[in-house]
Amino acid sequence: MKTAIVIGTLGFIGFSLTKRLLDEGYQVVGIDICADGSDLIKEQKLSEIVRNSQFYFVNKRIEDVHLPEVADTVDAIYDCMYEQDVQDENVCEKISVGKSTLQKIMKFCAEQHSKFVYLSSFEVFKENVNLHGGDPFLIKEPRNAIGQLKLDLEQEIETFSSSNEGFTYFILRLPTIYGPWQPPSMTFQQLIEGNTAPTLDPIQEDAIFIDDLIEILINIDQFHSLENKATVVYSNKKDQWQKAFRLLINDIKSDSSLVGEDRYVEAVKINQDPYNTLSEYIKTSIETGLLQQKNHYQHLERLRKLGLL
């Protein structure tokens, strides 16, 4: 039986990945913090998977975990952490802690001969990056503090790999990911909840449904050309983020009880890339994906009304 460690197992991407790995027959060690009564969403997620006999939950921050104590053998470690409280004032501290934690994870991976999958972000680039491969991807200009953190940690992985033969990693730079359990800080979820003037995501170049990303992560072994490099993940379709935004805004306007200001979001020019090896896994239409996200939110609202969440 294969074993995977998912860091951030109760987060947006980490939770969906954990469920899929369990469905695929993996033994999964999930690492995250879930303090009693402090986060009902995390508690709900944990209740959905904790009864699976192949799931072992470690209720600690990754920097406090001694990995050999939680898994004897590991086939893959997925780092799905995304820290939202990164600011210009604390980014240097976050980078220092992140590098120290990464060193621990990578050394364990090297000892286990397991692959390491690190989820990075379009935020390592300046805004409106041209999604067509080539030189623009070599010019890394972080658009915010999170982008600076991600970029520095990417470089830490690359440096470690250069001096540790046999260490295998995948760095995936992600656009906006949407779907069930999308955090309420993100634009699509705010619109679904009826917010007529949402804050806008820092990434508007593209949008990918969560299940399609999970399909890529599950099949990452098939992409040998992506080993030991950073890869941009994108849909190869035009204006996906803007299309979703317009659809959700129109939904709000169709409800006469919600009258909000007009919001215009400029489309980003994207050239199709015939060499995008991941696009075949990105199959979910914006309409289908948003419907699933809406239905999931309505389900959670019913649980809240019943006092179950």
From TrEMBL:
It comes from the Bacteria. Residues 5-186 form the NAD-dependent epimerase/dehydratase domain. InterPro entries: Epimerase_deHydtase, Lipid_A_modif_metabolic_enz, NAD(P)-bd_dom_sf. SUPFAM superfamilies: NAD(P)-binding Rossmann-fold domains. This is NAD(P)-dependent oxidoreductase. It comes from Calidifontibacillus erzurumensis.
